[in-house]
Design a protein that fits this description.
This protein is mainly beta and 401 residues long. The chain is built from one helix and 34 strands. The strands form eight sheets. It has a five-stranded antiparallel beta sheet. The longest helix has 18 residues. The two termini are 39 Å apart.
């Protein structure tokens, strides 16, 4: 009995820690959050603004959270900075880590990943940094170009590094070190996969652990690829091209099914993983569902998101690809979900709350984000009753509980 109690306490501790560590699109990259008791309807003017901070610099990286501290990056004078806040909006620390992207759509791109007392950052200038979480000092760094024979891409590398055990997964592109695993403590190369030799495509990789083989899935410039997480062996690839080699959305996974979405004339492909994750087969394809950079979420047996050329928000049946509804009149944007509710942030600065239902886009709240600068591209984050929204130079916290 004592052993069972100890095991239960250990599992509870792990669960609580996981909920306190918010990474790219939540805890598992699905865009689904697990907050209890949030508002199902917002006031006419939107939820109350708890606090705001002006001074992040340029960028559209989102907030990461670890143990009640917020971590976000920004770019000033071509230099990248990491900022640390408490949940009341007090700036606890700020430190420069290195050069950042100022070639086009200036600023920081990828959400940081926090693990084991360290912070992992991939820059638009194609470098990966490991920082000490307390001091913010650089522990190690690697250049995709100089150290891993990779290359940068047209609008700057944009991927949130993936942590699996003692490995950090990154996608330098190129013919040799196409996808790599680095020791998360030292930066040393653990394994390297040539994959299909494609360049990186702005996609943050996904880890799938419930199949016979542990799998890393990501979208490169020409292919969706499945890599054995322990060895780096390429298990399969599926051709997936568009006009600009941009596939910026982390695939959405559920029960052996993988939804991969792209814009620029591509669309959405549903793949079924076969042979324990060692292969794939197409289930359906829809050119109409051309989500470009906002990603999608799965709630129940339906997926929700917005289009690119097809400028509407939509609901699609997960298994068949049938479009259940289309809502015009709203700009494209990104999406997360919590407790059956959709949180849609359009690139015109509208924040929308809606019930996730296949009947219609059932809006229960809407307001405009008026603070901040440049693109409305950062994904919102939900944590302990607050919604954190980054708009360029400004970070905002809204009361949503």
């Amino acid at each position: 009995m004592k052993k069972v109690s100890v095991l239960c306490l250990s599992l509870l501790s792990l669960s609580l820690h996981a909920q306190d560590n918010i990474r790219w699109r939540g805890t598992d990259r699905s865009g689904i959050y697990h907050e209890a008791g949030l508002l199902m309807n917002w006031p006419a003017k939107g939820p109350a603004l708890l606090w705001s901070y002006d001074g992040l610099g340029e960028g559209f990286s989102s907030v990461a959270i670890d143990s009640d501290k917020l971590y976000i990056t920004g770019c000033t004078d071509a230099k990248g900075y990491i900022y640390v806040f408490d949940t009341a909006g007090k700036l606890l620390n700020k430190k420069e880590y290195g050069p950042e992207w100022v070639e086009s759509y200036n600023g920081t791109r990828a959400t940081v990943n926090i693990d084991g007392g360290k912070i992992y950052i991939v820059t638009g200038t194609a470098e990966i940094y490991c920082l000490d979480q307390q001091s913010l000092n650089v522990v190690w760094k690697k250049s995709y170009v100089k150290d891993l024979n990779g290359s940068n891409i047209q609008w700057g590398v944009c991927e949130s590094p993936l942590i699996i055990g003692d490995k950090v997964i990154a996608t330098p592109g190129g013919k040799g070190n196409n996808i790599v695993a680095l020791n998360k403590n030292t930066g040393e190369l653990v394994w390297s996969s040539p994959a299909d030799g494609d360049s990186s495509a702005y996609c943050s990789p996904l880890y799938i652990s419930d199949l016979e083989v542990p799998l890393i899935v990501t979208m490169m410039s020409y292919h969706i690829v499945g890599i054995h997480a322990e060895t780096g062996q390429k298990l399969w690839s599926y051709e997936n091209r568009n006009r600009h080699d941009v596939h910026a959305n982390t695939p959405v996974y559920s029960d052996g099914m993988l939804l991969c979405t792209s814009g620029y004339g591509r669309g959405s492909t549903m793949l079924k993983l076969t042979n324990g994750g060692r292969g794939v087969e197409k289930v359906w394809f829809s050119e109409e569902l051309d989500n470009r950079i906002g990603a999608m979420v799965k709630v129940g047996n339906h997926a929700y998101g917005s289009g690119d050329n097809n400028r509407y928000w939509y609901c699609v049946d997960w298994e068949s690809g049938e479009i259940k509804w289309k809502e015009r009149g709203l700009a494209m944007g990104n999406i997360i979900a919590n407790d059956g509710m959709l949180y849609c942030y359009t690139d015109r600065g509208e924040m929308i709350l809606a019930r996730a239902t296949p009947e219609k886009l059932d809006i229960t709240g809407k307001f405009s984000v008026t603070l901040g600068t440049a693109q409305h591209w950062a994904h919102p984050v939900l944590y302990k009753g607050a919604m954190y929204v980054r708009h360029g130079n400004t970070l905002m916290a809204y009361k949503v509980k």
